[in-house]
Amino acid sequence: MTNIHSDALVFFGATGDLAYKKIFPALQAMVKRGHLNVPVVGVAKAGWNLDQLRARAHDSLEKHGGVDPAAFEKLCGLLRYVDGDYQDPETFAALRRELKDAHSPAHYLAIPPVLFETVVEHLAKSNCAGGARVIVEKPFGHDLASAQELNKVLLGTFDESDVFRIDHYLGKRPVNNLLAFRFANSFVEAFWNRNYIKTVEITMAEDFGVQGRGGFYDQTGTIRDVIQNHLFQVLSNLAMEPSVRFDSDSIRDEKVKVLKAIEPIDEKNLVRGQFRSYRDENGVARDSKTETFAALKLEINSWRWKGVPFYIRAGKNLPATCTEIVARFHKPPSLLPESILVENHLRMRLSPEVTIAIGMMSLSPGEGLNLQTGEMVASHSPQADEMDAYERVLGAAMGGDSTLFAREDYVEEAWRIVEPVLKKNTPVYPYAAKTWGPDEVERVSPPGGWSNPGDKKVMALASEAA
Prior knowledge:
Strand content: 15-25%
Structural class: alpha/beta
CATH class of the largest domain: Alpha Beta
Helix content: 25-40%
Oligomer: single chain
Order of helices and strands: EHEHHEHEHEHEHHEHHHEEEEEEEHHEH
Largest sheet: 9 strands, mixed
CATH superfamily of the largest domain: Dihydrodipicolinate Reductase, domain 2
Number of strands: 15
Shape: globular
């Protein structure tokens, strides 16, 4: 069914928080661009009718991006609604009736994973799964065993080519721009390897806490929430080899190879932290050992990267909200004293704005052979009409393009890397809000320390270069 566009979109959990914040705005944007003109069937157990679902959509858009009157009117014309219990076969019989002559629907499961098996089984029994696609939200399991069980459930009814595991991070254009930077520019290949690069850092920082999601977060933690999915995807884009073809499976083959080359994380290469007021959040256990910060070191045992340490960190209540990559280069074999040389670096910021900066040394103003550091910066701020991540991934799934989605083997390899250390109950160190994690993070810091986004030193260099 790869080349067939879905002729309907069904989204379970139509009255939920994800639909309210992300799905309705994405659907309106797709309609506005002319990318959505098939029935959209919401399914939920809320005792609602279609008019109430339309009102919910309108309220969602007012608070998340704004209502476009023409696009919203067309979206309302596409909306359908089925109310019922996911355990009840009649709910799915009603869905089949609402789908009418649609033969290739896409079923989007915006519901808790515990309901996946029930819904998938009923889709099969009600003749709603034949010729269909299924779209599932992360988390893809809680560990390797649960990920394998989830895959077993999905693949019992759908082919792998018809399963789309959403990691919305892959819908972000800057994340995919890493591949364009690497493979569309011939000069990058010359230095993008262990011969020139000394270390690589990936930072995903948020300057806010759990925002009322304490109950969810306390069962998840930073490693499960963003590292083994979002940041491993960034890592794969940075480290993969060019694919032999430009189809989705060839690209994903290379990403899986990156993860296969990584040994399970050793506990000595991981530091977990928890911001001090976290246990006061609603839904959080008073003796919680869940991390809100994690920093780790790993190596990719491939021809290109062997011997280059990759440092990854993510956390909440840090000094800035920013996702940034910094690759530091070996110092040149200069006749100048090594003590006055500073490593060159390549800095790539993925959000909130997109920046590529090259850090280098040059002569200082005045006489003599005095050197200064600076950055040559190219920056781009997001435009108002750029596609949102959910708009991009939903459109890709309905079109049958799997490139932006995690494959079964990728998900299981990611869990293989992090699961052993998660089971070891490593210490969780407290840290003050608006700091870069606990003091213990020095144990897994790059030589010379982390490059912190938003540091005055970095900002000053950027303004000097400008």
